[in-house]
Amino acid sequence: MSKTNESLMQRRNAAVPRGVGQIHPIFADKAENATVTDVEGREFIDFAGGIAVLNTGHLHPKIIAAVQEQLGKLTHTCFQVLAYEPYVELAEKVAARVPGDFAKKTLLVTTGSEAVENAVKIARAATGRAGVIAFTGGYHGRTMMTLSLTGKVNPYSAGMGLMPGGVYRAQYPCELHGVSVDDAMASIERVFKNDAEPRDIAAIIIEPVQGEGGFYVAPKAFMQRLRALCDQHGILLIADEVQTGAGRTGTFFAMEQMGVAADLTTFAKSIAGGFPVAGVCGKAEYMDAIAPGGLGGTYAGSPIACAAALAVMEVFEEEKLLDRCKAVGERLVTGLKAIQAKHKAIGDVRALGAMIAVELFENGDLHKPNAALTGQIVAKARDKGLILLSCGTYGNVLRILVPLTAPDAQLDQGLAIIAECFDELA
């Protein structure tokens, strides 16, 4: 009997815990660039990119070739037992890309959550302090410490009780929702006044563009004031670039556009084109704060993933993907704003590079997020052959993370489907 999405969903539901969500009831069979084919042979345009993992597209030939070459050499030794050059080369190349005119070192791990966990460990060891300030709407992972940092309970930590302490929440600036830069800075000062002295805070962690929170871009002025505040109090600034990194915003790291450098930068997702590698890069003096044995992991910095990441960096150079990112962003934003002009439900279209969001409200009322319509658009688009994602504190934001390598014709096709969905539903 041929496999179907429905039959595989039944097997999945019997075998996989319900806590592992699934946005689309589809089982992928194969993919190429920005096209995914399911087990029933139906093709979809991929505007999700594995949640910002496939900036270089599915199965980029250069990346696959690099992985195949590495497979013929070795797949694992554990870097802490026997080292291998791809880890060191990737550490060097990431350090050269991360903003900051200072000596840097790079730790490689496996997942974004693991990168954030280690960034907090490094900050605590470097400062001798324990507290961390994070932001409303922030998303930093699903492990225990990263759930403390994540500014959204449902669904990420619902029913799990209280997360580890020592994390304090400040407001993320968002002009659309009435939170000014001054408001956000004042909320940090309230933490200092009401909850923890600056000398008890090891780090402030922030996404330059919020991911799950709704693709809100941190104002440059806010990031500069945050940098000055950290310098004033000896607090480390951590830029969580897991989703913004590897070229999604038009620069390899979003902080390049903020006018200041973080002390520590986390990265993952698109850095290796679909292979699991993540890491922390920061000031060498801070990165060296932990003694030998305090950092690492059995699979951390897998040679296969390192080979893939090195190929990703070559692809960015050879195919000028940062320029392509800007062109993709401009094309999509232009198309989306044309749709917005026809539909009051679209309250905002925003982007940094090709990290694009469309926020929906009831009749354009910014006080009434429209999660229901957002979900309907995602489902209707799928029926028409387009894979979209939603996000946002209120679930009312459509987000686009299409591979930067997608051809213009496919971008236009995706826009046409989105327009149809709004015409039919809004």
Account of the protein in words:
It comes from Pseudomonas xionganensis. This is 5-aminovalerate aminotransferase DavT. One of its GO terms (biological process) is gamma-aminobutyric acid metabolic process. Belongs to the class-III pyridoxal-phosphate-dependent aminotransferase family. The model has no long low-confidence stretch (mean pLDDT 97). A seven-stranded mixed sheet has the order 4-10-9-8-7-5-6, sandwiched between helices. Strands 1-2-3-13 form a four-stranded mixed sheet. The chain has 13 helices and 15 strands. With 426 residues, the chain is α/β, with parallel strands linked by helices. It folds into two domains: 5-59 and 320-425, Aspartate Aminotransferase, domain 1 (Alpha-Beta Complex), CATH 3.90.1150.10; 74-318, Type I PLP-dependent aspartate aminotransferase-like (Major domain) (Aspartate Aminotransferase, domain 2), CATH 3.40.640.10.
Explain the layout of strands and helices.
Layout: H1 5-15, E1 28-32, E2 35-38, E3 43-46, H2 49-52, H3 61-71, H4 85-97, E4 104-109, H5 112-127, E5 131-135, H6 144-149, E6 167-170, H7 181-194, E7 201-206, H8 220-233, E8 236-240, E9 264-267, E10 278-283, H9 284-287, H10 303-318, H11 321-340, E11 346-352, E12 355-360, H12 371-383, E13 386-387, E14 389-391, E15 397-400, H13 408-425
Parallel strand pairs: 3-13, 5-6, 5-7, 7-8, 8-9
Antiparallel strand pairs: 1-2, 2-3, 4-10, 9-10, 11-12, 12-15, 14-15
Helix pairs in contact: 3-10, 4-10, 7-8, 11-13, 12-13
